[in-house]
Specification:
7% strand, 65% helix, mainly alpha, two-stranded parallel ribbon
Length: 198
């Protein structure tokens, strides 16, 4: 199960803002000088895949979600098998004329109720799992946003992108701050886990 961090449209709009700055060409008698970018104009990126595999919060929550998902599958599978066995037993006894018509109808109604209950259970557990996944995604997003605000309090970066797969066509490794971010997030997460245990 893979979770994804969705880039904000504001980040995309901000990068387009950089390229739409004054594009007029310099006049012949003007000197063109390259200026170092202002402190807040620097750009950096974080590798999302590395964040997901190295950030301890992600690792811990992935285990929680996998365990919960496996438990849901086991519960539903065992109830499905029990229902199938009961239905097969019912069919066999019907063929052997072991039931009166009223008994067969009552058992069939009971099997239908079990099937409906199983569908309702499936929907409820799926909804709970979806809620848990959304809670995790929000907590991940919030922890990342909070940490990036602290990390970038000196405003040294104007933009920090999330790089996932090939969503950036080219990214110089010099702009990669993933290791710094992961290390800082893990340190902060370790502190919150220690505080939670006390």
């Amino acid at each position: 199960m893979k979770t994804k961090i969705i880039l904000s449209a504001a980040l995309v709009a901000a990068t387009m803002g950089f390229s739409s700055c004054d594009k007029s060409s310099p006049k012949m008698d003007e000197k063109t000088t390259e200026q170092a970018p202002a402190a807040g104009n620097k750009i950096a990126y974080v590798e999302v895949d590395s964040l997901m595999t190295q950030y301890n919060f992600c690792k811990d929550y992935t285990k929680i979600l996998e365990t919960k998902g496996n438990n849901i599958q086991k519960t539903l599978a065992s109830k499905q098998q029990a229902l199938q066995a009961a239905a097969a037993n019912f069919q066999q006894k019907v063929q052997q004329n072991a039931y009166t018509r009223e008994q067969a109808e009552a058992i069939q109604a009971g099997l239908q109720k079990q099937s409906n209950d199983l569908q309702a259970l499936n929907q409820r557990l799926s909804a709970e799992f979806q809620t848990e996944t959304e809670k995790y995604n929000k907590a991940l997003h919030d922890s990342l946003q909070h940490y990036l605000a602290v990390y970038n309090k000196d405003k040294r970066y104007g933009l920090i992108f999330a790089k996932q797969g090939d969503n950036l066509l080219y990214a110089d490794k010099a702009y990669d701050i993933t290791n710094d971010i992961v290390a800082g997030l893990n340190k902060a997460y370790k502190g919150t886990k220690g505080a939670a245990k006390k």
